[in-house]
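Q: For a teaching handout, I want to show students what a protein-ligand complex looks like in token form. Below are the inputs, and the small molecule is EPU. Please produce the holo structure.
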Amino acid sequence: MEKLIVHGGSRLSGTVTISGSKNSSLPILAATLLTAEQCVIRRVPDLSDTNYMVRILGTLGAEVERASGRVIVAAEKVIPQAPYDLVRKMRASVCVLGPLIGRLGEALVSLPGGCIIGDRPIDLHLRGLEALGAEVEVKGGDMKLSAPDGLRGAEINMRGKFGSTVLGTDNVMMAATLAEGRTVIEGAAAEPEVADLADFLIAMGAKIEGAGTRTIVIEGVEALGGAEHEVIPDRIEAGTFMVAGALIGDDLLLENVCIRHMGALIDVLRESGHSVEEKGADAVRVRAGSSPQGGEFTTEPYPGFATDMQAQMCALFATTPGISVVTEQVFPQRFMHVPELNRMGANIRMEDATAIIKGVERLSAAPVMASDLRASAALVLAGLGADGTTEVNRLYHIDRGYEHIDDKLRRVGAKVERVKE
Ligand code: EPU
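A: Here is the structure, written as tokens, with EPU included.
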């Protein structure tokens, strides 16, 4: 296992190039299973999660080649079983379900199981696929889906207790591309990653309208063909570097950023007194404000404030003067970073799914334990702003979602070292 040694006290300046989106790449890679023809996906970030997805595609029978961000997949023959030992390592592997049932009329995929950020059920995915005519049986930890006569278009409401579901919308949209007739998904997730997946499916020959809004209409087609696609910039990686800039940035330029995907975060950073300046269509310059003040936000489905940025903002607010209030509405239990930040001297009190943060002057370094991807990012940020040297253990969490984070941070002046535990 590796850990990151983070020396506090440095300032950041220089340029960071943001990678392709993890959360776009995963369903897009899964979507290549919908065709026997070759697909080429560019700007796939080099992460353990995308590596798992590549392995899953291989296990399902696809031929996959990967070189510097480009993944070429030819899924001429596909088997319908995704085994537990691969699926359990990454919850997002559930997004092979839609392509398998859509193309093969059957799928046997292990239930992905729990997750540190909450319960994470997949009832809405199954409800949507059932509405398309799949028979669903959950037994022995596996989901067995079958539609021997193919899927049929339907009107489906995907809204759940916590709002829309991103991967659930992806699964139903992918399956519906090959269903007979028209599917209307109401209460669809409108995240940019869903729209990016739809763009890839459209390039493959699918007929989809409305992706990126709450209603998606899919007209089923007989077959899909090969396509090329470049994934969108990772808005959460970009957001994490924006927060680093707000915390300790003298002059941090982020390139390959899709600014229009980041409105909610940019608003909160500006309201707290930091400078986020647009530089053309795809770059932003971030500088820490001279007299920042606490802020308030609630996480919501897109275009609201992203849950995947909540932990990093808690790290920023921990040393921002005044009181900040952060409410989690997407994953109410996603606050594993709070006790670790408090160990570093933060003053954060939880009231149900709301963190009340009283800004302290400085955090002090401590060995801390990363519990999930975004919590780890928050601890790295906290360490960069703290006095002394912080050890962030279990670095594998961060390698799931941040491409070469230590190299990128070092290049703009951070003092971080990756070492074996
Ligand atoms: N939900 C249900 N039933 C379902 C599916 C979801 O109740 O069948 C609930 C969840 O428990 C949660 C809410 O709906 O309360 C939203 O979950 P969603 O299904 O949208 O999450 P997801 O699709 O599994 C993706 C991202 C997550 C991100 C969430 C929310 C990928 C690979 N993952 O997960 O990203 O937090 O959407 O935006 O796209 C991350 O990158 O760190 C990460 C966790």
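A: Two things your students might notice: The two ends are 6 Å apart (CA to CA). The domain at 22-230 is CATH 3.65.10.10 (UDP-n-acetylglucosamine1-carboxyvinyl-transferase; Chain).
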